[in-house]
Amino acid sequence: MVLTPRKFEEWYKPFTWEERVWFITAIVIALILAITTVGWTVAGMRPEVPTHAMEMSVDEARAKALEFSAKYRGKVVPPGEPVYLTAIRFTWIPNEITLKKGEVYKFIISSADALHGFSLIGPDGVVVNLMVMPGMAYEANFKFNKPGVYEIRCNEYCGVGHSFMIGRIVVVEG
Amino acid sequence: MEELRIKGIPAGFRVCPVTGLLCHIPTQNLILANAVMAVLSLLIAGIAALFVALSRAPLFLVKDHATYYMWLTAHGMNALIFWILWFEVALLYFVSTVLLNSPLFSVRLGWVAFALMFLGWLFVNYSIFSGKASVLFTVYPPLIAQTILFYLGYILFAVGVLIAIALFFATIYKARVERRFEGSLPLVTFGAGIAAIIGFTVVVHGAIALIYNTLYYSGYIETVNIMFYRWFFWGLGHNAQYVNVTAMVAVWYALLALSTGLAVARFVNEKYAKIAFGLYAIFVVPGIGHHILVDPGFSLALKQASGSVGSHFLSIPSMLHALALLGGLEALLRASGHTGLFGWLTRIPWGNPGIAGLLLSMLLFGLGGIVAQPQTTLQPNLNYHNTMWVPGHFHFAVVGGTTLAFMTLSYYVIPLLTLRKLYSVSLARLQIYLSFIGILIMALAMLWLGWLGAPRRSLIPEELMRPEWYTVAWMLGLGAVLWLAGGALYIILAVLTLIAGKKTESREELTEGLITNFHVIDESLASKRGALVIVFIILFVILLALYFTSFIRMSLMPVEVW
Fold first, then answer.
1. Interatomic CA distance for residues B283 and B387, integer angstroms
2. Which in A109, B8, B261, B482 has the greatest CB count within 10 A?
3. A8, A15, A114 member nearest B272 (Cβ)
């Protein structure tokens, strides 16, 4: 019984047909989910979670982003140029990036201190989230197909000023 | 057991007037002490929840950011770690002693575990409320608390839980050797045993993560490997939730049995349920990886295998339990003459607190599991990771599922342990429905906010809110207030029962309004086909619809990522 001990032969009973059908269905559901996601990766469909990452010290992450920020402040970043974006408590370097619509940009995203979250929130329900780690740089390719203002918010708790970390990506017509 | 009866009641035991089970009085005191600490932690978690929720809702109750994250840490630690684990320790002791007519292996060691857990609880809460540990329950390095007490408390509590788990197994072993019970373990004890096995893997992962982090805090390690920490932390953080899940499912079976006066027992396929319990233990460790799906540094193969596929397979046992429980109830109702594909549904005694609590908890947990599937899948996780979708998922599962189930069970167990009548059955019923509605509204609001990209773990001041979040945030606040009103009612009812419940040893009085009697007229009428249709619609149709909607939404975004 459920609450009291029972002899083996009293509870070890065959499944009913409903139980058998559901056992198979449950496995089928899990398989459908698994095949869909693995198939998506194997077929090379997009979006896909960026796979490339490299080690990058916190000093280098800060220096590269500051350099990038100084070079392209108020200017459109030319396609092909890597975009350095570094999270530092409690801001993004650079805080605003201007990109061209329809071009591929390689983002190199890292942190100069704690764990941060990169959350891109844009028009038409765009939400893309990546983790930002000190010591590691995520290499992610982005292509913006619609002009407008996209926010970058930190969505991993990094300290008291965490929710003030809001940067902007402005996408302009090419 | 018969033998014991003939010999009379052994010293230190009493016979339960309702169940006829032997209850060891020193063990019972230990169980009650652990349960009281569980409720106290729930109370702290609830107060913290009020501040957290009403600051995320556009009331902005807490405006100071440091204070907000202090409350958020207090909420996470007390709700997710203390309330759940105290209750589970009480449950482990209960199912290994009372259900097996046995005393605890060592009550003294039980008090040692209690003392360690209490010290840990005290250290952690002191660190949090002195404002020195606003690091949330994940304590991701290089973020550090300002006091070693926080780390020490975390570890002490874990050691206490580990001793409790060892005591549980030692108790079963001793009861078996001393022939205190005949045959196989009761289903509920078996399920709790699986929870204890998972709990063991949790403590091992937790020890690695927390000791590593403590060494980093103390300066023995200069640079911290965050990938390493995150992997092992979530071996603690998320697998601990599978201790909850497994214990909750064991509680579901107990509720089904208790609320039907054990009439349901012969309609529940125990083999099916035990296989499903075993599957949790098999899939839980391979499924850790869903927290690192968008982390830099892990390979795509590992993310797919552990994060996506492992996690999807971990949902199989929960799906099996859904049919075993609902089908068991259906079979009982049909055998009692309430037939028709769905005719039996209208005959479910929705006023019985145990049955209402069970079915509502199952529904909420099911929703939590369904919304977890897209979130635990590699690509859609790009949309959901660290948004409010995630707390939406786990408030459905842990609050709606586990907490509601544990609350409901305590309406049955408190009267048996204290021999006091539940203060008011209608208030218990009101609490269950109020809490259900509250958490449903709140968790749906969280999911919606997550869909709109609102970050979790953030106090967002009014000027930084995106306009589309505003109304939904009100909905979150409304749901939270309703849920917390239900929670307050629960604690009031538990305390009133403890101090003002009518003292009685009469079976009828102790179970009045809690048990619905069924008159089985023909066992051959029993069938589970209605339940099969229901679980098929919810878990096949709705789950897959949401899953593919997530893929479609993701691929329609005007931003390409790879």
1. 26
2. A109
3. A15
